[in-house]
Fold this protein.
Amino acid sequence: MSRNVAIDFIALKDVVAAGGKAGKAEAADTIVVFAGEGAALSANTAKLTKPAAEQIKRAVSFAKFKGKTSSSIDLLAPHGLSTDRLLIIGTAPGKDASAPQDFPALGGFTMGKLAHARHAVLVLDQPDFTSDAAADVAMGIELRAYNFDTYKSKKKDDDEAKEAAAPIKILIACADPVAARREHKSRASIASGVKIARTLVNEPPNVLTPVEFARRAKELTKLGVEIDILDEKAMTKLGMGALLGVGQGSDNESRVVIMRWNGAKSSKAKPVAFVGKGVTFDTGGISIKPAGGMEDMKGDMAGAACVVGLMHALASRKAKVNVVGAIGLVENMPGANAQRPGDIVTTMSGQTIEIINTDAEGRLVLADVLWYVQDKYKPTFIVNLATLTGAILVALGQEYAGLFSNNDELSTRLTVAGTATGEKVWRMPMGPAFDKMIDSKFADMKNTGGRFGGSITAAQLLQRFVNNVPWAHLDIAGTGMSSPSSDINQSWGSGWGVRLLNKLVADHYE
Ligand code: BES
Ligand code: MN
Ligand code: ZN
């Protein structure tokens, strides 16, 4: 279970008092203060910690604490203060002196140090600790508090586990707590969206089938999101032969879920659209994958998870925009009725696809969902997310998602939003020479283009289902799952893309 964190903001002046009294921080078991270059403390912080000044000086010197980001020192039972622990965290730039302060990461780093605390006060007193920064610190705390242990049966009696899950109250002391509290409201919506996405990615594939995924997406109704679920009968009627072909080998039925949030002044204003690949498990089908690491393919729905998390974030913060979120949910299994290499399927668009490799299934799912969304909703742009190719991991590792687009403006906006949120994207080339690689002898196209440029030919196939609308495809096979730990994320499923796309919408479409 995630740790239950109750965050509020208080005025800096209410915690800063001379003579060992820490005002409203008196009751806290942990006081956290922040140091700049050379372990420098602000005037307020120095005043607050004055009774322990000598102890701090010795600790700083012994630990060679320089006030750098991602470093800290800890004083237990600090002299003359009523708190049990004084934690000093660095904020000065580390090796990369030009990097701006990453406030969510600072919050996450801080949270990582608060395992034993029940009541902490964070004293944010540096010139760049604006109300926005304070809210970002709070978001980082919330993201770090996430922990997925739904299936650990021992957690209830294990003392250590109990300790790790104990609730914590965190007061953030800053210059303008009213403004910070207001800013934090939307950040809390975003953090919840990220956590919803993480959980969907972390859930095991026997639990999170397409039908169960659709049921979870339906919970967004509570926030005023309108949900339509297409079952196999409806999809057959629409002619979604590519998506249905992927799911036909599985006993678990396929679904498409459409989520609509109408937050713009006029409900008739054209929507923006997000589309996600939701392969709840990808065995590869008849072109079956090797056994090693196949369990990771439960995360092959990270694109769909992101779209659900994003819709949650947007609806929960009442974003002033009309949005359509659409996810294609299938399970790719071998079986007596499974799709074969050599099969030719007819997509909703009418175009036909020859199946060369049943493991190149994500593009088949997206082909029909992309078409459906354009046909029905005429969006101003479409961004789709998919754990589409292993090749993108070879190209960009786990640092960047691959960005493929027919539109420079949308690409720039995504790139800028990526730098700002730390969910970075890197634009990859597309073009007719790559497109030719998926021409087929027997059908309009084939579903793989060979080993070379594997992520690009996958994107070219998607583009054949995009008609004159600004479109971007994010290949998140490297960023959405199996994620390296960071200050704000310790979870296998990262919830990647929720913050990025929320920012894209907030900056340009509200
Ligand atoms: N879901 C996989 C891609 C993937 C790989 C996601 C690693 C996350 C981590 C996708 O469906 C797939 O199997 N792609 C094939 C395509 C190939 C058969 C043309 C691949 O990347 O090998
Ligand atoms: Mn596959
Ligand atoms: Zn897949």
